[in-house]
Amino acid sequence: MKLYNIIFPIWLLWIFPTTWLFIMPANLLFDALIIVLTLKVLKISNIKTILKTVIWRTWICGFLADFVGCLILFSVNIIKFSPENPLHWWWNDNMMAINYNAFTNVYVFILMTFAVFISAYLIYWFNSRFCLREALISPQERQKLSISLAIFTAPYVFYLPTSLLF
Questions:
Q1: Which residue ranges run through the membrane (predicted)?
Q2: What span, in angstroms and rounded, lies between the C-alpha atoms of 64 and 105?
């Protein structure tokens, strides 16, 4: 089935299960890579043991954090104003551009950046409070690993313009 002339924001790929067949394993491998590289930089020796302990929680919580970012972006499509309201035309002219390109205007860029930031913060929070709790590393190392995961696994793909898909 081919879809032509459809406005389809790349961040909405989360909703369609067929894309998950690629996204989920790729995300798992990327999370594992970031954990391993960060632990190597921190000069921690028992990397395999730590990875086995934390990877599944880190992976699942990363998806949850990214999903919250998707909900923020999707909310733009849910918010509606009556045509008599002056915000109706402004909203349609400015904010609905989030479905096409995050770089269309400053309002969309700010909202997109906010969604990416919230997802990154949640990745940090989930990892520092929950996912890395059982890892045999110091609290300082846990915080550094959480920051590394937040920075490198934030959903920057949200910024990709839809036009790149079609």
A1: 20-42, 54-78, 98-124, 145-165
A2: 28
